[in-house]
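Recall the central idea of this unit: under ordinary conditions, the amino acid sequence of a chain determines the structure it adopts. In this exercise we apply that idea directly, starting from the sequence alone.
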Amino acid sequence: MAHYRIADVFFQQNDYQSAANEFREALNGDLEPKWIEVWSEIHLGMIFDITGQRDRAVNEYNLAVRSKDNTQRAQEEAAKYLKKPYERKKSPEAEQ
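Accordingly, the structure predicted from this sequence is:
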């Protein structure tokens, strides 16, 4: 769980390499709670989409779908990004 939370902070800070490393560490852990697996896969897919690695992103989203875990609508999220690549929303500060 700690690796997942650290990864989420890195993701929010746009530090994608560090986030990806921590999401992988979360996947290598005990996967408790179970939702860590599906959401780590989805976030890795998002990182790959952001960094222009669509094939790798699709692979991660497919792994999320195969987990069959639908915690907080994870399956809908994975299916959405399989259809259309994830794009980071621009912050209001960035538009000024």
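The CA atoms of residues 49 and 88 lie 9 Å apart.
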